[in-house]
Every structure is written in C-alpha cells, then in structure tokens.
C-alpha cells in the first residue's frame, strides 16, 4: 500500500512488514538527500506532490511490479516536505522468493516512481538560494 509521510521513513517497520517465511529476499532501496549537487552545498530538499494523483500512480506502480515480477510484495513510501541531508526521501521495499527478482523489481519500481509520479523536488543551498530540480518528463 503506497503512502506519503511528512515524518522520517520508518525503515524498520517496512522491513518487518515485508518479512515472510516463504521469501528468501527483501530488497530495500532508499533514496537519500545528498549534501551537495553540482558543486554546491545542499542544506535540505523539499518535496511537493499532487497527492491524490501521485498516490494513485504509486499504487499502480506497486501493482504493476507485482504483476511483472515473481515477487510477494512491493511497497513504496515517499516523503513530502523538508528532508535534510542523510535522511530518506523515498523507500521501495520488495519481498521475493529469490534475490534476483527482488533486485529487478525494486529497481523497476523506483525507476517508474521517478518517471511517472507527479512529485517535485526543490533543492535548498547553503548560500540561501533554492531551485526546482529538473526531472524526467512525466509519461506513461
């Protein structure tokens, strides 16, 4: 079940929820805030989304990933609001019987989030400036 949060992402809970006795692999991807970008010092990121539409897209990505790969579960959590360096902005967790399917499914789900979800990222720099990050045009 895809979700948004304005709090730090609880990775321990995600891993606990993904654990299944029939699965030998859990893959957790975390997209984290870097403290730099193109030679500039980043003090935080901020995320905005068209929440209702974005949640539908994230849920669709989860469902498609379950259908495309031999996995038992896929969950996506994205943070909104401000995210300081070192903290996670997005988490994708996949459980599968075997690691290859878990790795492949997790990568595909994250790539789809980046290319399809109406979520926007703004970088805030140490010198006080900020700018929206140019992303991938939304598409099918």
Tags for this model:
alpha+beta; five-stranded antiparallel sheet; four-stranded mixed sheet; 9 strands; elongated
Can you describe this structure?
- The chain has 140 residues and is an alpha+beta fold.
- Helix content is 31%, strand content 39%.
- Strands 3, 4, 6, 8 and 9 form a 5-stranded antiparallel beta sheet that branches.
- Strand 3 and strand 4 form a beta hairpin.
- Helix 2 (51-68) runs antiparallel to helix 3.
- The chain is elongated and about 50 Å long.
- It starts with a strand and ends in an 8-residue tail after the last strand.
List the helices and strands and how they pair.
Blueprint: E1 3-5, H1 11-18, E2 25-32, E3 36-37, E4 40-49, H2 51-68, E5 71-79, E6 81-83, E7 88-96, H3 99-116, E8 119-125, E9 130-132
Parallel strand pairs: 1-5
Antiparallel strand pairs: 2-7, 3-4, 4-6, 4-8, 5-7, 8-9
Helix pairs in contact: 2-3
């Amino acid at each position: 079940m895809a979700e948004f949060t304005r709090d730090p992402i609880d990775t321990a809970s995600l891993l606990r929820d993904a654990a299944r006795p029939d699965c030998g692999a859990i893959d957790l991807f975390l997209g984290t805030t870097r403290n730099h970008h193109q030679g500039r010092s980043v003090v935080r990121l901020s995320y905005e989304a068209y929440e209702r539409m974005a949640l539908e897209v994230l849920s669709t990505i989860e469902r498609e990933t379950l259908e495309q790969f031999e996995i038992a579960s896929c969950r996506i959590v994205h943070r909104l609001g401000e995210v300081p360096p070192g903290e996670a902005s997005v988490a994708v967790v996949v459980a599968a019987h075997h690691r290859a399917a878990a790795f492949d499914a997790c990568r595909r789900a994250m790539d789809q989030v980046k290319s399809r979800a109406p979520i926007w990222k703004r970088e805030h720099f140490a010198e006080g400036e900020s700018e929206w990050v140019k992303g991938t045009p939304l598409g099918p």
